Structures
1.
Amino acid sequence: MSRSREARLTAADVLAATSARASALPAWRTFAGGAADAQVGPPPSDNRGKVSETLAPNDGLVRAATTPSATEQAAKRILFVSDEPELLESLMDALRGYRRAWRVDCARGGDAALASLADEPADVVIADMQMPGMDGATLLAHVHDRHPTTIRIILSGDANPQVLVRAATVAQRFLGKPCHVDELGPLIERSCALRELTEHAEAYRVTAAATTLPSSPVLYTQITQVISDPAWGPDQVATVIEGDTAMTAKVLQLANSAFFGIDHRVARVRDAVVYLGVDTIKSLILSAEAFGKLAPNSLDGFSIEEFQRHAMLVAKVAAAILPAGREQQDAMTAGLLHDIGKLVLIADDPQRWARLTEEARRRNLSLHQIEQEQQGVTHAATGAYLLSLWGLPDGVVEAVAHHHDPGSFPGLALHPVAAVHIADALAHQLQPSAPDNPPPGTLDEGFLDRLGLQPRQELWRQLTARWASRLTEAATDLDPD
């Protein structure tokens, strides 16, 4: 097997290598933090420090033959859910290298998974979308309701856009099927790291006696509920939007603006949903509702109109940097909301905001540098925490969290974190701050060097200039009512 082929090993490859042993042996195995290796065969005579995972033929539950050791109890619990035993086997094999940090369990189907979670919560649940009875999206909806802090990941090989949109309403991350086993562990690590970052922001807000964060925007939540139905269509989405007169007008204004470049007039909300796509519509409505909830009535040195125009520009450039797909949509949403943490800070305490911005201006440092120095939490982390509470996908949340420090994000790839960082920096170069505002964050040239992206910088700068010109043409459509 060539090195490149081995690096792209899929679940089917693992299955081919292990099917003979899997069919001949009992359906149980040992795989736990602290165990020497994942084992297949008779249970060892001494089970201390190990968990024996049994796929019971009657209910599919994972059962522990012994009480987990202290090391295992401290380890993160990862639960795979599928009705395919071979897929479960391959996924568990993919995480052999993480056995000292994680305890990996599996469940045969949604009912078994919920019963297992009732016995012991999991840190991460990875569910197969295509399961009979209770599919993966339905299972993760139950997990969200019963175990809201559990990280939810969907595994699907279905390319149907309606299926993907429905899965995205309940899953924080999306894995293609078959998945590349070398991507699975790092993706779970990223999800856990993001959870720790948002928990740190939450702890800061508790100790700082900050104001209560707003609940998830109503219209955005209603649309999310509509598209969670397998039979959803653009008519149902349009009906929800048309229940809000102001938002109906805003959606039609945006659809007909020069910014989106539709070559004919859009007169119906349904047509806007079709032409722009439900993901774009959701992102625009979310940003409009979020800004409406948090925008200050008046604040010296702050313009909500300029704030929104900058957000729109970052969103369009970030989306243009990435190829079409889920990551592109995450980048657009994150671009629209990347600075929402600033609005939270202003709502918390306008005087503190004024002190932080004045200190940054006086020392010629960016705002996030002063925030980190004085508070240990930046507006980026605060915004990420708010969006995680609202249930946005992890790809959006981490792009918001790291838009000033992409180098701290694991892995070397052109992903939403990189796209939003690049778009934000280039937009600021074209939209310089007012003299009485602190300097914005700058482009991380070292980060671009490590990713080999420097040759594309001039192309992206020209792209940003073109979108900025379009934004100027459409400015009257984008100003708040």
2.
Amino acid sequence: MRLPRLYRVRQKLNPPVVPDIAAAVNSEIRKLPLAGRLTPGGRVAVTGGSRGVVNIAAILRATCDTLKALGATNVRNQGPLVSARVPVSALGKLAADPALKYARSPLATTETLPAKAVSQGDVSLRADIAREESAVDGTGITVGLLSDSFACNPPAFLPGAPTSSKDQDVTNDELPSIINILKDGPCPDGTDEGRAMLQLVHDVAPAAGLSFATANLLYMDMSDGPRRLIRFVAVGR
């Protein structure tokens, strides 16, 4: 076998050098329209990509120092991650800031959630684009799901954490009004994981039919559940 001629190539890059990292970071952050957004007691989460950046730790440390100087509190960083605190009322402005690449709230209370919360999976799967450009919304499709329970309506895992009942989910359009429940349970021990999963399905395919069966009551529920769901869609029982 005759191989083609190979050549050795060396790539030499000339990256820019910043002599004073802290001063440069401070200068760039202060150019951002942050006036009024950072208030005492608020929180903000900041993260930075480290690929190709030699002094990422120094950059993020300087970022934290500048945020503190602007009024942010509870600012902490570990490696390329930074967390801080900002008021909920400023989150919309923060999200619209072109300088922000990524932010995530680690905690939420019932009062801060909208009536209808759309799953991030909707955008991750680009289902919103598919619905708009291809007019597909799940019409004519039924999604069957197995989990522990659907309508046990358990309390929140942590006091004050956001939670809802099945009826509230229907009222808030988190779920359609008609869902085929073949078998629910086990209540009151069920966590309603199945209802949460169907909320995600409803976000992605809002016109799809939904069916649910528990997999946690009997030994055969898990193995026989898919067949029962398929049979229900096929013959209605």
3.
Amino acid sequence: MTVQKTLFPMPPKKAAKPKKKKKARKLPGHYCRVCGRRRANEKFSGKGHAAHICKDCAKEQRAEVKKKRKIAASPRAEKNFFSNLPTSLPEELIENVFQTEAVRIERIVSTGQSSPPDFWYDQSEGEWVILLRGEATLQFQRPRQTQRLSQGDYVYIPPHRKHRVLSTSEKKTTVWLAVFVKQPKRQWSIRRATLDDIPAMKTLYRETITNICAADYNAEQIQAWSSTAERTDSLAKRIESQCFIVAVSENDEIVGFASFEEPDYLDLMYVHKDFQFQGVGGSLLAAIREKAVEVGAARIVSDVSITARPFFEKQGFRVVKKQTVRIGDVELTNYKMENPLCKSK
């Protein structure tokens, strides 16, 4: 069967065009240009631009404008922390911004100044300081370290932690905000040590060496020295045979201890790392002096570390000789010191 070809073939059918979606017909009424809601029964007031805002939105806009006008009309602060900043100063500028019995706030402005050589700040207050502008470098004595500060950096300096300003930026004016806080007077009492105090004394002994003495001894010496804290039997023997006393805080925390071996030897004396320069050491030494006078000692002798030497010198001790002691294979330097006593009549 043969298929006859058509002389006039039919053109191919075109693809059906997709039907366009009819736009949603807006319901009759007014539409707010701010919130977009339809208000069928509300006639907008105003002309032009204002005629397209509903009453609720218009009320909010009026309240916002009123608030901005009120803020603009309010008086400005009397002073600004960054006002009147000098570009050069012969010496550092320190201004007292605010002060109460417990808190003092200062603005400090530097233009390249630094602390004199061998000068150290030794403050009885805690200091929180933030660098608001410029750059500076602080140096701390114990432990010996330097700390660079840039804009926004802050640091807390505990009471009596000796420090100095090593440098400040000469290109930019450096602005400090320093907050000084007086430390509350802490109370403690002195009592005889007991065997139950040994765990707390071991912790105090180890932490004081690692935190306070690290400025004067190297890491190997600190490790060897602090390892002797584990000699529990040695502490127990001293408690039983010596005049061994502890300083106890109001929270029943041991904040220091000392031991005296007759006739005249001050064997141990350590103060908690967080109670340095607060009088604990002086209270312990006063109690030891009373005991030494009671037993008829003409003097008190002790082997004193490099770190503790300044304290004992302030308490009337003098250096007899510099000496080297060994803990295992490690050598450490200390001083033989003595303090003459006035015997009671």
4.
Amino acid sequence: MVEPTERPDILNMTQAQLDELVTNLQHKRLATRKRYEEAQAAKQRVRDDKARAQMETCLIRMNKELIAIDKKVAKFEKDYATLMQLKRIAVIEGEYSESEST
């Protein structure tokens, strides 16, 4: 089992680092979806009914987890978009400069 990495300190990240974080989350989500689809294809190739039933049960759990991941990533992306909008407003009003975040 892969251990989660240390949580990034998003309050002290630059714009480029925040963009990279969002991109990495999207890539991980897509990679997880691909593994799920590969597992579904593998199930179709299994001939043993008992093994297929066990695989189906596992795939159902995986699909529920993928749905939850998609919801979390979508919420994160929405919050990120809100943060960027607030940052643009602060720049326009002169309350924020990019040098403060580096």
